[in-house]
Amino acid sequence: MPATTRTTLRRGLAAAAALPLLIGALASCGYGSQAKNDEKKVAAEGAKLSADTVRLGYFPNLTHATALVGDQEGILQKELGGTRLVPTTFNAGPSEIEALNADSIDIGFIGPSPSINGYVKTKGTNLRIIGGSASGGVKLVVNPAKIKTVDDLRGKRIATPQLGNTQDVAFLNWISEKGWKVDAESGKGDVSVVRTDNKVAPNAYASGAVDGAWVPEPTASKLVSDGAKVLLDESDLWPDKKFVITNIIVSQKFLKAHPDVVEAFLRGTVKTNAWINANPDRAKASANAKLKDLSGKALGAKVIDAAWPSIRFTDDPLAATLRAQAGHAVKAGLLEEPELSGIYDLKPLNKVLRAAGQPEVSDAGLGAK
Q1: Which bin fits 81, alpha (ψ -120 to 50), beta or left (φ > 0)?
Q2: 3-class SS of residue 265
Q3: In the Cβ-directed half-sphere of 104, how many Cα atoms lie within 13 Å?
Q4: CA angle (197 as vertex; 276, 316 as ends), nearest 5
Q5: What is the pTM of this model?
């Protein structure tokens, strides 16, 4: 592939339940929708940290439920005290990376492929991955009238969200491992890869423009509610069925200037994940309430009930799987071999985990010195 093409493509790329002690602490704090107003009042009266505000970016997706629930329930704001949380939502990884690079946000929830691309694009000078958020929640769903087995995919049109995004890379890698050929840039080959925004995918499927999709939740379950069938859960392709789908990133400038704010934010995400895992039904309702607040419409019970169990919420960034995903992008021709040393700084997270009596997590040898 020509270097200019690779450059263009690179630009286009963009835990288990907590210990009883921690759960008891969360319960005593009164987390939940009924306590939301009280938590915000406490936050407003709390001691301010070294920053007046922390600007947060995340997607209105279930795979970003740590952010959805932490925001909705006031858990993140409570840990930040008098430092005000200012959230902004994005629809794609590249736009969130652009916002981080432009100093428009400080911390973000984002997928592995845009994390890798954002790190490589700035030669390792702007972002760090500081924690995990979610694993799983990605499925290959197909029209059962046209596709009954994996072999039936040949000659069919399958949607992915965006050229070079996390699901696009995963699908291209899976196709390659099947021995099929697809040109990564055009999407043409033994299977046609049709880049389609997640918001558009249900209409594309209903019209017959695509025969299926490799997509995250809740898009996968929306398609299933429209008659599609799950052919493959991506979790089945990974050791222990775990792979990173959502990271927490921070600008290095903000991390250096406000380590206390970053640590407080991570205390909030750890407590949010513990609350989600201890209260799955309440957490599911909370995430849906936040989605309704953001979009004006909640997910139907049929969709969210099918989507929620496929996502695991974890503080572990599953760094070894990010390294593997980078390798998949290289193999597909979407990325030159990246230098990822220093992409992680898990010292603040491990400090929070130790204080909560939980085991530390690994950066798979990719940590900042």
Answers
A1: left
A2: helix
A3: 12
A4: 30
A5: 0.84
